[in-house]
Specification:
- The protein has about 200 residues and is an alpha/beta fold.
- Helices cover about 50% and strands about 10% of the residues.
- The protein is built from eleven helices and four strands; from the N terminus they run ααβαααβαααααββα.
- Strands 1-2-3-4 form a four-stranded mixed sheet, sandwiched between helices.
- The relative contact order is 0.19.
Length: about 200
């Protein structure tokens, strides 16, 4: 939701200041969900009494990262005739305090194990930012017309999960998000009639 509202709200300014970039930070964990978990019915289920709502908070994180990839790809298609270049970055495991509040939800042992892994095998924040910086600043993005692509460290392009590349899924998520924005914050600058895909 946040990525969608922020980016679409700024979109007219991005077009006017072209060429411009949108870098959506996701995660390789977008691949870690089952086919049933990408169902919008499941995604929109806020029943906190269900076991997976409480016991598997990481699953909700995986879903959010999947939604990030889907959003970026849907937006890139809508802007393929504009000088606005939308791409996706997985920063890798980075030595940050990302897990600092996860102990209660995921257990102290799990959190400690993840923090230890990051400490010894993770990228420094400086290195972890390089893929995003490449997508935000490299002249190659315009020169090679790089749009809607998915990159992992360091600035290596790979294919996103096949389900996130499904244009039908992208459009379902886009419509769902538009409707949810209308429901929660009303009609706004964030929803533009012009944001229709050029090809499906």
């Amino acid at each position: 939701m946040g990525h969608f509202v922020l980016t679409t709200t700024l979109l007219e300014r991005l077009k006017k200041t072209k060429p411009s970039r949108v870098v959506v930070v996701s995660s390789i964990s977008h691949e870690a969900i089952s086919n049933s978990d990408i169902s919008l019915e499941v995604v929109n289920d806020n029943d906190s009494s269900k076991p997976d709502f409480v016991e598997f908070p990481t699953l909700r994180y995986f879903r959010s990262k999947f939604a990030n990839v889907v959003f970026a790809k849907a937006l890139a298609r809508r802007l393929e005739n504009e000088s606005v270049y939308v791409n996706i970055a997985h920063p890798g495991s980075v030595q940050t305090k990302l897990q600092r509040y996860s102990g209660e939800a995921m257990g102290e042992q799990y959190t400690s194990a993840i923090e230890t892994y990051y400490k010894y095998f993770g990228y420094t924040p400086e290195v972890g930012s390089l893929t995003q910086l490449y997508l935000a600043t490299s002249p190659e993005i315009e020169e090679k017309n790089i749009r809607g692509r998915y990159f992992i460290p360091i600035a290596n392009e790979i294919k996103a999960d096949y389900r996130a590349r499904d244009e039908k899924v992208q459009e379902e998520y886009w419509t769902f998000t538009e409707n949810l924005v209308r429901e929660k914050i009303g009609e706004s600058q964030a929803i533009k009639p012009s944001l229709q895909p050029t090809a499906i």
